[in-house]
Amino acid sequence: MQSQRTKLTQVAALLVASSFSLTACGSGSETSATSSASSSSAVDGQSVEQQSATPRLALSYDGGILVLDADSLDQVADIPTEGFIRLNSADNGRNVFVSETGGFRVLDMGTWTRQHGDHGHYYTVAPSMTEMRFGGAEPGHVVPHDSRITLFSDGTGEVDIVEPAELERGNAKSTEYTVPEPHHGVAVSRGDGSLVVTSGNEDTRSGIVILDRERNEIARNDQCPGVHGEAAAADGVLTFGCQDGILIVRGNEIRKVQSPDGYGRIGNQAGAEDSPIVLGDYKTDEDAELERPNRFTLTDTRTGQLRIVPFPTSYSFRSIERGPNGSAVILGTDGALYVYDPVTAEQIRKVPVIPAWTEPDEWQSAMPNVHVQEEVAYVSDPAAKTITAVDLNTGEQKAQAEVGEQTIELTGVTG
Fold first, then answer.
1. pTM value surpassing 0.85
2. For the segment 18-67, what is each residue's pLDDT rounded down to a tens digit?
3. Neighbouring C-beta atoms of residue 193, cutoff 10 Å
4. Is 48 helix (H, G, I), strand (E, B) or coil?
5. How far apart are CA 170 and CA 92, in angstroms?
6. Which of 48, 186, 262, 382 gives 115 a disulfide partner, CB atoms 3.0 to 4.6 angstroms apart?
7. Cα–Cα distance between 9 and 25 in angstroms, integer?
C-alpha cells in the first residue's frame, strides 16, 4: 500500500497532466501543462509548464526560508519573511504552507520547469512565495489526508479544506467551516466529505467530534483531556493524542486507549498510511514546564495495544518521523538517529549524525530537526549551521552542507 504522501503527489501530478490550461502559482499567467518533457510543446508562443522530479527542502530561520536541493543540498533560494513562521508540506510535490501571524501563505518550491516559445528551451522555476492565503489568526495544524489538505486556525477556529487541484491552478480556494469556539486544535477532512475536528475552547480541550458532509454531528468523544496532534494509519484510521492516552478513529467509531500512568501524555504522533502502528511521544510529569522524555509509544490501531518503549536518551517534539516500511525514526539529543521496527519495538539501527544537543526551554527556538523523504532522513543542526542527509536503509551519510543560518523548522517536497 502506498503512503498518503505518495498518493497526494500522484494525484497532483495526474491533475496537472490532465489540465490543458493552468495558472502558474504566483504568476497569474495562463500556461499549458503536460506530464513529460517529450510531449510538452509551446502553444501559440505561450509558456508551457511541467512537473519536474526535483525534491527540495525548506528550512526556516529568523528572517527567512532557505530552499535547498534535496539531493545535492545546494541552496536554491533564500526567501525573506517577517516574524516567527512555521513550515508544513502540502504533500503535493510542490507546495509548503507557511504559517504567519495572520494565516497560512503558500510557498511554491519551484519543482517545475517552464518553456517559452517554440524552441523547446526549458528553465527551472524559481521558488517563490505565492499570493495564495488561507485561514485566520494563529494558524496551526496542516493535515494532508485522503487527497485533500485541512488547515486549522487556532485564533479564529476556522477550518479550510483545500483541494490539491486548486493549489496547482494557483487558486486560494477552499471549503470552510468554523468550530463553535476557537482553540488550539486540529481538523482532518476525509474522502467521504466528513470532518473530524477537536472540541474545546481557549482554556480547555476535551476531545473530538465527527461531522458529516453537511456538518451534522455523527459521533463525539469528550474523554480526551488536552487533545493535541493527529496521525493517519493504515485503512484510513486516525489517531488523536490525549493527556492520558490516545483516541483511535476507525470510520465513525471512536475508541479511547488509556495510558498506564494517570498523566501519560501522547501529544505528538507520526503515522504511516501503510502501517497500522502509530508512533507517539510520551510524557508523565504534569507539572514540568518542559519535560524531556526518555520513552516513546507505539500504538496498534487494530488492537488498541499501547506499547511504551524505553529510549536511551531524550528527544523533542521535532524528533519523531516515519521511515521506510513504516519504521519509527527518532532523533535523540545524543545526536544519533534511532530506527525501530514498529511491530516488535526492536532497535534496527543507530546512526550518529550530529553532536549532542539540549532541547531549548522555548519551543520556538532553533533546535535540531529530522525530516524524512522516501528513504532519506535529513537532520538539521542549528548550532553548526549544517544539514545532513542519511540513507535510512544503510545508515550511510549521503551528503552534508553548511546553510549559514541557525535554522528552526525543516520540511520538504518530493517534486
1. yes
2. 332 333 333 332 222 222 222 233 333 444 556 667 899 999 999 999 99
3. 15
4. strand
5. 13
6. 48
7. 17
